[in-house]
Amino acid sequence: MMKTNDSRYLLRWVLSLVMLFSPSAHADTPTILVLGDSLSAGYGIAANQGWVKRLQDRLVERGFPHRVVNASISGDTTDGGLSRLPAALERERPTIVILELGANDGLRGQPPMAMSHNLARMIELSRQAGAKVLLAEMRIPPNYGPTYTQKFHATFAELAKHYDIPLIPFLLDGVAGNPALIQEDGLHPRTEAQPRILDNVWGTLEPALR
């Protein structure tokens, strides 16, 4: 039989969970939503070592009130991100959205025009929800041919210019091509690369925070 004190403790615990997961629990806290793929999901490394988790730590250290929500899924494409974004916007009501998608579109050889359409729609949906949008520039290996590679790369700058939004320079700048910072698969960054990736993002994100 449960004692009175135990009952009260259980009630407080249940109420705390309700408040934690209630849509209004973070109503007054500005939110940064990161919608990405394995590069932001932290593929192959400890969950607390990825650049997105480090971003939350930096925000706290530097006195910013924002909370970070990582809605990244390994292997995701812009098509998948577009299908997931409306629910994430409704659920999190972010003030800033960081779009880090497109690499898997390129690796699968999907048309840059389709990728551009998906990213454009995500930018529009985020803006309609009242969020600032930051777009992360992605690149693919040159073995896809110069024509495809150039069209793929140009897509991000074109979208940033068209929508007048900040463009995060190549997310893996200073990381890609460095065996000491890239996992054995040749694609995914190691734990040691995460601080550099965060710095690549921070230079564009910090002005938006202010």
UniProtKB/TrEMBL annotation:
InterPro entries found in the cross-reference section: Ester_Hydrolysis_Enzymes, Lipase_GDSL_AS, SGNH_hydro, SGNH_hydro_sf
Q: Where are the transmembrane segments?
A: none
Biological process terms in GO annotation: lipid metabolic process; proteolysis
* Segment forming the signal sequence: 1-27
**From which residue to which does any coiled coil extend?**
none
E.C. numbers? 3.1.1.5, 3.1.2.-
Q: Which UniProt keywords apply?
A: Hydrolase, Protease, Signal
**Domain SGNH hydrolase-type esterase as annotated: residue spans:** 34-192
Q: Which GO terms describe its molecular function?
A: peptidase activity; phosphatidylcholine lysophospholipase activity
Keyword Heme listed: no
- Identify this protein by name: Multifunctional: acyl-CoA thioesterase I protease I lysophospholipaseL(I)
